[in-house]
Amino acid sequence: METIFIHHPNNITEELDPKTIALGFFDGVHRGHKEVIQRAKKIAKENNEKCAVLTFDPHPSVVLSKMRKKVKYLTPLEEKEEKIAELGVDILFVVRFTTAFSQLTPEEFVEQYLVGLNAKHVVAGFDYSYGQKGAGKMSELSEYAKGRFEVTIVDKQEAFKAKISSTNIRNYIESGELDEANELLGYPYKVRGTVIHGDKRGRTLGFPTANMRIDADYLIPKLGIYAVKFIVSGETYLGMASIGYNVTFKTDQELSIEVYILDFDREIYGESAEIEWYHFFRPEMKFNGMEGLIEQLKKDEEDTRRYFERESSI
């Protein structure tokens, strides 16, 4: 897949091949997004055209909010690019979302970024909007096209009797409902980061952990203990993860993310790693001493092994 970054105004002037374009922000590249992209792929193949995705970065709220806003993503741009490539897209257009870009009228957006990129067919979800303040609606896109490209509108995709959306997935993750979030995503939620040195207290407890510095743009699940998979050096291991402030021992406010990797004994400081989140067990708890904490950690390990044994048998 070729990735092309565009800073408004669109400065691509060379002759462009005709293409089918899927529109969306696509944070998470979840099941609803996949339906849009796969529909575009099918149309492109039928018409012997290239399939393209047009997305934006950063999230519009970063630019449009009057307050300084930091958005946490399900899939930061690099991972979003990888997931779209896995779907077999030919071209990814990434438009830098700026104030000037946000002020385009719907007609200007269509002229410069759909007609201008030689779209012959445009595919998007039923609630996709475009142009200043989202004034352009999918029901109006054929009118703006003026016969120069066709339009396909993908109906609402649902799960748990609600729309599959990035917002709903974020809500599930932030409330620890990873089973539900993963169902909507269509894959386990994942974050990336680097293994760093911690206080090594886990060793004294009999539960040595990999401390993780997570890449800044990722949404972090709620505090607590989870069943996870830990991926390092191309290998995947089962583990239990803790997100919290080590309240039994610490009084500071530095959040830590630690993974006890089952059946693992190797030094991996400085390695890039990924955590796939599967299931929330319990909130962070404060214990009066080490004995109570160790007993709870043993139970957490048993719960983790039992969870993955059950999953592998399904």
From TrEMBL:
User: Does the keyword DNA damage feature in the UniProt annotation?
Assistant: no
Question: What EC class does the entry list?
Answer: transferase
| Catalytic activities | riboflavin + ATP = FMN + ADP + H(+); FMN + ATP + H(+) = FAD + diphosphate
Q: What is its EC number?
A: 2.7.1.26, 2.7.7.2
Q: In Gene Ontology terms, what is a biological process of this protein?
A: FAD biosynthetic process
Query: Which Pfam families does UniProt cross-reference here?
Result: FAD_syn, Flavokinase
Q: Which InterPro entries match?
A: FAD_synthase (IPR015864), Riboflavin_kinase (IPR023468), Riboflavin_kinase_bac (IPR002606), Riboflavin_kinase_bac/euk (IPR015865), Riboflavin_kinase_dom_sf (IPR023465), Rossmann-like_a/b/a_fold (IPR014729)
Indicate whether Membrane appears among the record's keywords: no
Enumerate the UniProt keywords alphabetically: ATP-binding, FAD, Flavoprotein, FMN, Kinase, Multifunctional enzyme, Nucleotide-binding, Nucleotidyltransferase, Transferase
Q: Which GO terms describe its molecular function?
A: ATP binding; FMN adenylyltransferase activity; riboflavin kinase activity
> Which pathway is this protein assigned to?
Cofactor biosynthesis; FAD biosynthesis; FAD from FMN: step 1/1; Cofactor biosynthesis; FMN biosynthesis; FMN from riboflavin (ATP route): step 1/1
Domain Riboflavin kinase, by residue range, is 184-309
What is the similarity comment for this entry? Belongs to the ribF family.
Question: Mind telling me what this protein is named?
Answer: Riboflavin biosynthesis protein
- Native species of this protein? Listeria fleischmannii 1991
